[in-house]
Backbone:
């Protein structure tokens, strides 16, 4: 049953209601298992709709979406798809259900009917995977935004998913919370081979991905490694997005006549490049 | 200023009463209320008092806390006592002082009603002081689940209560924020007469409601994404189980009701 790709969109069009706005237009996308994909796009580009299509919260108006070969439009797969492709939303306060961290992590397990005796162990494993075990008995409203998002991730991990879809999960966090969440997800991706779809408008976060997809008006317009995508700075700006800060700095320096190469994404890249130039001089 | 609202009045200590199954405690409270209403003789209250004292002792609740639970009631209590005392129509005349007449039936009613009120409030506050709100919700869900057969939404009701409890601090914080923002722009929530103050609340309530609806939409989506599909086939992390302590506690309430019934027969 499992196709060659883990998450697959095949000529998908999604319209909010009959005659309403078309959020996604004839989009095809194939994500192999274990890939860390950053999905970029300005507001209204359809990236959030893609996230909701990927775990069956929305079903396509035209075309098919498959998770591990299961069609999201088939009602008998709905709960299995949602268990396998967990989703973290933007507002940490609006996705926590229970008044205690432990109970909230249990929520998904209770829904899929895991026997009560199995729950404590799975909850503790999930909480320690996101380094939140010591907060198990706390009230979620007393935690920081980054901690709340990690609790949300733990709630999904407890269900033993194959993919994590994060819909601007860091948009409402402070810089340290953003770093925490990104590091946690990155680690889960490498350690557990969990496929990640990371939706963001922070370009710096996208540089950490294996693959960057840029969306514009409901279609994927750029697709490649972060280096390939961000090298085309003018094209990115054309889609009303920005380039990562170091790429921008390199561009400025280049315009002042310093011969830096075109694919600088991180501070380390920049240091390496400057060293290389210094050696030559 | 809104931040001081405490969630329920749960008093977290470890005691035999705290450890009881929430269903037991709910049934005990109901049984206790029945017993209080069955009492007709003043000495009957001694039995109820003994039961209550034992419950308080076993629950390790400070007496001060129990007395505090009566405090909001003091005005109602005084009214109940005074009105019954002066307006009791029947019975022997005990005292006449100008137009004030006190008859024995009035005195009897005054004492009865006041005692009942105090016992009811103290008795039911033991339930809320020794049971965490979420546990209480679990208990209500379980107790009401036989009613599902006649279409009573026991699970949905309990889920709503849990979510309400979860969102009280969030919405309180938000109300506080909106209030400060409106105050900064010159709104006045604290002065004026009742009507003016009620009007001043509108710019607070409208954004609060709008945000609550948005949160509800988000939460529903997040719950669905986490496979929530109602109470059917759902397992629970905390399984409620009746133990020996629960049976003896229920037996104690049974005895209390028996004694109060006996008291009516004897007289």
Residues:
């Amino acid at each position: 049953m499992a196709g060659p790709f883990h998450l697959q969109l095949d000529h998908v069009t999604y319209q909010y209601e009959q005659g309403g706005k078309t959020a996604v237009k004839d989009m095809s996308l194939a994500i192999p298992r274990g890939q860390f994909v950053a999905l970029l796009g300005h507001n209204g580009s359809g990236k959030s709709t893609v996230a909701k299509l990927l775990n069956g919260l929305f079903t396509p108006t035209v075309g098919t979406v498959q998770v591990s070969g299961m069609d999201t439009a088939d009602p008998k797969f709905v709960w299995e798809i949602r268990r396998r492709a967990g989703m973290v939303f933007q507002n940490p306060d609006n996705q926590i259900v229970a008044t205690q961290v432990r109970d909230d992590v249990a929520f998904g397990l209770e829904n899929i009917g895991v026997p009560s005796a199995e729950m404590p162990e799975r909850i503790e494993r999930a909480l320690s995977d996101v380094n939140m075990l010591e907060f198990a008995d706390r009230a979620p409203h007393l935690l920081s935004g980054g901690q709340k998002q990690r609790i949300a991730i733990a709630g999904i991990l407890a269900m033993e998913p194959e993919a994590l879809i994060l819909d601007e999960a860091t948009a409402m966090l402070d810089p340290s919370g953003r770093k925490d969440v990104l590091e946690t997800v990155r680690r889960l991706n490498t350690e557990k081979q969990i496929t990640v779809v990371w939706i963001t408008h922070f370009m710096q976060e996208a540089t950490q991905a294996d693959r960057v997809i840029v969306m514009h008006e409901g279609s994927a317009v750029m697709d490649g490694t972060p280096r390939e995508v961000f090298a085309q700075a003018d094209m990115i700006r054309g889609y009303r997005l920005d380039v990562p800060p170091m790429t921008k700095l390199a561009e400025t320096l280049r315009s002042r006549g310093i011969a830096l190469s075109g694919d600088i994404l991180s501070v380390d890249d920049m240091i390496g490049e400057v060293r290389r130039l210094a050696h030559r001089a | 200023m809104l931040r001081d609202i405490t969630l329920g009045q749960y008093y977290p200590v470890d005691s035999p009463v705290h450890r009881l199954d929430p269903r037991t405690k709910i049934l005990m409270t109901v049984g206790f209320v029945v017993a209080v209403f069955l009492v007709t003789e003043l000495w009957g209250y001694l039995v109820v008092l003994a039961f209550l004292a034992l419950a308080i002792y076993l629950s390790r609740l400070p007496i001060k806390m129990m007395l505090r639970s009566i405090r909001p009631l003091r005005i109602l209590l005084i009214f109940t006592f005074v009105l019954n005392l002066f307006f009791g129509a029947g019975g022997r005349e005990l005292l006449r002082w100008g137009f004030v007449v006190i008859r024995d039936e009035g005195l009897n009613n005054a004492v009865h009603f006041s005692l009942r009120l105090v016992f009811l409030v103290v008795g039911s506050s033991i339930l809320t002081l020794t049971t965490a709100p979420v546990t209480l919700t679990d208990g209500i869900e379980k107790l009401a689940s036989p009613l599902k057969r006649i279409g009573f939404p026991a699970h949905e009701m309990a889920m709503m209560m849990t979510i309400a409890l979860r969102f009280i601090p969030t919405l309180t914080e938000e109300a506080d924020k909106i209030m400060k923002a409106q105050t900064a722009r010159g709104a006045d929530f604290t002065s004026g007469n009742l009507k003016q103050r009620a009007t001043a609340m509108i710019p607070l309530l409208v954004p609060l409601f709008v945000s609550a609806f948005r949160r509800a939409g988000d939460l529903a989506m997040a719950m669905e994404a986490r496979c929530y599909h109602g109470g059917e086939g759902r397992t629970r992390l905390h399984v409620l189980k009746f133990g020996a302590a629960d049976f003896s506690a229920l037996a104690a309430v049974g005895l209390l009701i028996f004694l109060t019934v006996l008291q009516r027969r004897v007289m």
